[in-house]
Structures are given as C-alpha cells and as structure tokens.
Design goal:
This protein has 63 residues and is of the alpha+beta class. It has helices at residues 15-19, 44-53, and strands at 2-5, 24-26, 32-34, 59-62. The chain has a two-stranded antiparallel sheet. A two-stranded antiparallel sheet has the order 2-3. A hairpin with a 5-residue loop joins strand 2 (24-26) and strand 3. Bound molecules: iron/sulfur cluster. Residues 5, 10-16, 24, 26, 32, 54, 56, 58-59 line the site of iron/sulfur cluster.
C-alpha cells in the first residue's frame, strides 16, 4: 500500500494529520508531508479514514 498526496491540491487544512498523525504532517509551508509513504497493511483502516477526511480529495491509497 502506498500513500499518494497531490501537493498541488492540498490546502493544508490538516484533517489528515488529525486522523493519522503518524503518517501526515502539515508543514510551515501549508502543504502536507507524508511521513511514511509505504505503510503496513495494519494501518489501512486508519489511513482510509484519513484519506476520506481530506476535503479537497488530495490523498489516495494505491495497492
Ligand atoms: S486533509 Fe487534505 S488538504 Fe488537508 S492537509 Fe491533508 S491532504 Fe492537505
């Protein structure tokens, strides 16, 4: 599984960080940073919730 973030779409709203702080962090530039782009399968439920929480649909899971 791979986290894909569209940095041009991200508006730095921080919903993903609130849902899964081990994997997302909004930097001072106001754009999300993916802390671990290839997380283990055991994180899928949390990451799906985080991806679904993004208001501008900037996140996706592949695989
Ligand atoms: S929830 Fe979406 S818009 Fe907000 S920081 Fe995360 S990726 Fe960016």
């Amino acid at each position: 599984m791979r986290i894909v973030a569209d940095l041009g779409t991200c508006e730095g709203l921080g919903m993903c960080e609130a849902m899964a702080p081990d994997f997302f962090e909004v930097g001072e530039d106001g754009v999300v940073e993916v802390l671990d782009a290839e997380p283990g399968e055991e994180h899928r439920t949390d990451l799906t919730a985080a991806v679904d929480a993004c208001p501008v649909l900037a996140l996706a899971l592949q695989g």
